[in-house]
Every structure is written in C-alpha cells, then in structure tokens.
Specification:
The protein has about 110 residues and is an alpha+beta fold. It has a single domain, classed as PAS domain (Beta-Lactamase, 2-Layer Sandwich). Helices cover about 25% and strands about 40% of the residues. The protein contains three helices and five strands; from the N terminus they run ββαααβββ. Strand 1 and strand 2 form a beta hairpin. The relative contact order is 0.21.
C-alpha cells in the first residue's frame, strides 16, 4: 500500500493507491480530506507522531509497524513500512509518503 500526506501543520492525505482506499474503506474524496493523524486511534497517535518526527529529521524511516483503523472502525496491522519525506525541486519538504505491507488483513 502506498500513501502520502501534505506538509501542513495538521497533514491531510493527498494520495492512496487502490489498496489503501480499500483498507481505509473510503473513496478518493473522503480519503483526500482525512487528516492523517486520524488513520491511527488516539492511543496509537503518539507512536505515529514519533515516527513522523524521525522521518522529518533523518529523511526516512524503515521497518515501522503499527495499527491503523478504517472509516468503519476495522483495525489492520501494517509492517515493514518505509516512510520518507517528499521534497520539491528546491529540496523543500512538501509531504511524507509511506509504503508498507499488511501483516493481517484484520487486526
């Protein structure tokens, strides 16, 4: 699955491939209005934020695992995620992207 969000203070998803939309149980319009912090439940947001800060500092992170939640409340476990900063032609950060596999379709 491939996802990306923008670089605003409260990032909003800008992209998901077909598998991402299926897992989050959303259509394109719904997903691209979702603040990315809501892809994780409240108890998992600190860990998600730690990951994104690591990516901000290093440029990427490898081998991340965590639980995410769909629009209907269905949990799924991601593993072996690689997350990286998206840069423009001037090397300015314009977002972050993630590529990952699923451990189990349902958590």
């Amino acid at each position: 699955m491939l996802l990306a969000h923008n670089a605003t203070v409260d990032p909003v998803f800008q992209y998901a491939n077909k598998k991402g939309l299926e897992l989050f149980e959303m259509n394109w319009d719904e997903f691209t209005q979702l603040h990315s912090k809501y892809s994780a439940e409240p108890q998992n947001r600190k860990e998600r934020e730690r990951l994104l800060n690591e990516v901000l500092l290093k440029g990427y992170a490898d081998n991340y695992s965590g639980v995410r939640i769909s629009k209907t409340g269905r949990r799924f476990f991601i593993k072996a995620a690689t997350v990286w900063n998206i840069l423009d032609d001037n090397n300015e950060k314009i977002g972050q992207a993630a590529l990952f596999r699923l451990k189990f379709p349902n958590y």
